[in-house]
Design goal:
Keywords: ATP-binding, Nucleotide-binding, Transport. This is Biotin transport system ATP-binding protein. One of its GO terms (cellular component) is ATP-binding cassette (ABC) transporter complex. The chain is an alpha/beta fold. The protein has one domain (2-223): Rossmann fold (3-Layer(aba) Sandwich), CATH 3.40.50.300. It has 7 helices and 10 strands. Strands 6-7-8-3-9-10 form a 6-stranded mixed β-sheet, with helices on both faces. The longest helix is centred in the middle third of the chain and has 14 residues, at 106-119. 36% of the residues are buried.
Length: 224
């Protein structure tokens, strides 16, 4: 369970989020809103990349303020641009990085690397230069680099924005197949049509919180 309790966030004198209180329990949750609505800042609060100016974020009872290391193990985060997340020049080296930091054995790292690359039909790219991957392959590598560390929750910030239709569908299928709780910020309304819950942000506040069938049309009306 993720609990957001009276959370506000400011960057200096600029208020970004205003007194947000939510409990997130559903398996698939989408966060939508116009650019500048606060949705990406909200997503970064969920694994402690940002700390609230006031209020509390709790992940399974632990606060992001006091338990940052444990929270980041539980809550994986995938950035919009995979180039901001891929840090090593070769695919398997990039996948191994996080697992080494968690103390996984060499055999475990090798096995998990093989398994995740096989899952996404990328095993032939194991020794490939990461910067020469296609956009879709880079995003799958970024997602894979988080998944091999076995998070309980996966937060993704607009993971399909930079992709063409084929790769959007590939990423969507990959996410739909996961057992983890998914919390996703996006502008792609088709991507979230089958989600359990859609939360709409506007000017740093939650203005709609409902099923996709109700929230998406209400959001479209709001944007009109």
């Amino acid at each position: 369970m993720i609990q957001i309790e009276n959370v506000s966030l400011s960057y200096g004198t600029r208020a970004v989020l205003h007194d947000i209180s939510l409990t997130l329990t559903e398996r698939r949750i989408a966060i939508i809103g116009a650019n500048g609505s606060g949705k990406s800042s909200f997503a970064r609060l969920l694994n402690g990349l940002l700390l609230p100016t006031s209020g509390t974020v709790r992940i399974d009872g632990q606060t992001t303020k006091d338990n940052g290391k444990d929270i980041r193990r539980k809550v994986g985060f995938v950035f919009q641009n995979p180039d901001n997340q891929i840090v090593f020049p070769v695919v398997e080296e990039d996948l191994a990085f996080g697992m080494k930091n968690l103390g996984f054995s060499k055999d475990t790292i090798a096995t998990k690397t093989t398994d995740i690359l096989t899952r996404y039909d990328m095993l032939h790219l194991r020794d490939h230069p990461a910067h020469l991957l296609s956009g879709g392959q880079k995003q799958l590598l970024a997602i894979s680099g988080v998944l091999v560390m076995e998070p309980i929750y996966l937060v993704l910030d607009e993971p399909t924005t930079l992709l063409d239709l084929r790769n959007k569908r590939r990423i969507s299928a990959a996410l739909n197949a996961l057992g983890q709780t998914i919390i996703l910020t996006t502008h792609d309304l088709d991507l979230i049509a089958a989600y359990d819950r859609v939360i709409v942000f506007d000017e740093g506040r939650v203005v709609i919180d409902d099923t996709p069938a109700n929230a998406i049309p209400a959001y479209e009306s709001l944007m009109a």
